[in-house]
């Protein structure tokens, strides 16, 4: 509908909310409900069907996939001679929860997120709030505007102005040390073990799992053993919601 954005911006019952979105995102949404859901944490969501809640978790899942695809394409073209291990590590740095938290705050998304205020007492949960909402937003934009619009939005509105890829390339993010320190602080046992590769995968590839208190929390694969350990540690940090203090 060509005039839907005019209605949403000036006549809709949600026009104040739409104007706030436009100021933060740079465009007028079509389906406002998608964005309202994107910023609704599960702590304030209600059940709608078969136990499912109208929270941002499903949009977060979708946005994570779309974001990963856009970043992978960007890095593939930017570094035509780098191997898969390098590209994987760079993508992990860009889409890490710490980086997404920072991007979310830069965009001002914290002004829109709905959540139970009592969560402030739980830093571990609070740490993922902004990054989760960022991914949910990408999912909402994708459903509302399509892939090409979302790709352009990510590249031109977010990554180019807010992500210093050269700086990230030189930055060493030591997820393994972070995981070990976290476990030591809480008295948990952590170790890294090599496991058999999936069927059909190169024998030269190392598969490493990060195990915390006998639970596999992350698996990393790379042709370099140390790189595989770092990837496993990063996935474990993501799984356990271990974040840097910001």
Task: Outline the structure in words.
The N and C termini lie far apart (42 Å). This protein has a three-stranded antiparallel β-sheet with strand order 3-4-5. A two-stranded antiparallel sheet has the order 1-2. Strand 4 (206-212) and strand 5 (215-222) form a beta hairpin. It is built from eleven helices and five strands; from the N terminus they run H-H-H-E-E-H-H-H-H-H-H-H-E-E-E-H. It is mainly alpha-helical. The mean pLDDT is 84. The protein has two domains: 4-170, Ribonuclease III domain (Ribonuclease iii, N-terminal Endonuclease Domain, Chain A), CATH 1.10.1520.10; 175-240, Double Stranded RNA Binding Domain, CATH 3.30.160.20. Helix 1 (4-10) crosses helix 2 and helix 6 crosses helix 7 (123-145). The chain has helices at residues 4-10, 15-25, 32-38, 57-78, 84-94, 97-107, 123-145, 147-162, 165-170, 175-186, 225-240, and strands spanning 47-49, 52-53, 190-195, 206-212, 215-222.
Topology summary:
Blueprint: H1 4-10, H2 15-25, H3 32-38, E1 47-49, E2 52-53, H4 57-78, H5 84-94, H6 97-107, H7 123-145, H8 147-162, H9 165-170, H10 175-186, E3 190-195, E4 206-212, E5 215-222, H11 225-240
Antiparallel strand pairs: 1-2, 3-4, 4-5
Main attributes of the structure:
246 residues; mainly alpha; Ribonuclease iii, N-terminal Endonuclease Domain, Chain A; Double Stranded RNA Binding Domain; 2 domains; three-stranded antiparallel sheet; two-stranded antiparallel ribbon; 11 helices; 5 strands; 11% strand
Determine Rg (CA atoms, Å). Answer: 20 Å
What's the tally of helices? 11
CATH class of the largest domain: Mainly Alpha
Q: Largest sheet, order of strands side by side? A: 3-4-5
Helix-strand category: mainly alpha
Number of domains: 2
> Main β-sheet, in a few words?
3 strands, antiparallel
